[in-house]
Write a structure and sequence with these properties.
Blueprint (H helix, E strand, L loop, with lengths): L18 H15 L5 E4 L5 E4 L1 H6 L15 H7 L10 H19 L4 H11 L2 H18 L10 E3 L7 E9 L3 H5 L3 E9 L28
Helix pairs in contact: 4-6
């Protein structure tokens, strides 16, 4: 899928073999495009299957990246794109760590999946992220509680390029049974209108991945 803001109807990236499933995804793309909020459908690797125009607009300002574009693989974007923190507010604690927790669960279920193994190798190449994944993540989950890991219902900081939107969103998981049977999940980021008295925001540049996850306490050697 070409990464661009607005304009064209969202199309499924990888159509299943079944004609019925392909037809369902084509119609679901039409439904997704009618949603005014950023909405995305992805598989167990977080490879994006569908993303509506609102989702593409949300990330229209991020720089090109060879492996971590948000409309290609959302997990890779959250973990590895240097601009992730310019859109995803409080990036480490509210986005990166929950996604790492979901990734760990996916590895337990699909340990031999080549796509997940590739992400795992990239995590291992970053010493700080590797330490957080192997040692710090369980500590963070115990300290923050299981609710911090869940996407559905979470209110998380979000910096939209359109100033009419506020500084956070409600993450809503809404996966119908047919999508679930295909192995897909859907998330929608329900935006809130900005308060008129709110000061102008200046998104901070995200730090490089090697400096991610400072919120995970350093463990003793």
């Amino acid at each position: 899928m070409a990464f661009q803001a607005g304009g064209q109807r969202s199309q499924p990236r990888c159509l299943p073999e079944s004609p019925e499933a392909r037809a369902y995804l084509q119609d679901y793309a039409t439904l997704l495009e009618a949603v005014p909020f950023p909405s995305v459908v992805f598989d167990h690797r977080w490879d994006v299957v569908l993303a509506n125009s609102a989702f593409r607009t949300l990330f229209s300002g991020v720089a090109s990246h060879p492996t971590a574009m948000p409309c290609d693989n959302f997990l890779r974007f959250v973990l590895f794109h240097p601009d992730a923190g310019t859109v995803l507010g409080e990036h480490e604690s509210n986005w990166c760590l929950p996604m790492l927790a979901h990734f760990a669960a996916a590895v337990e279920r699909h340990g031999q999946d080549h796509g997940l193994q590739s992400i795992r190798r990239d995590i291992a190449q970053d010493p700080i992220m590797e330490a957080a994944y192997r040692d710090g993540l369980p500590h963070w989950i115990r300290a923050a509680g299981p609710h911090a890991v869940e996407h559905d219902g979470a209110v998380r900081p979000l910096l939209h390029p359109d100033p009419r939107w506020g500084t956070d969103c409600r993450v809503v998981g809404e996966t119908p049974k047919t999508l679930q049977d295909m192995g897909y999940s859907r998330l929608t980021l329900v935006m809130r209108e900005a308060r008129r008295s709110a000061p102008a925001r200046r998104p901070r540049r995200a730090r490089h991945a090697a400096n991610h996850l400072s919120v995970v306490p350093e463990l003793p050697a």
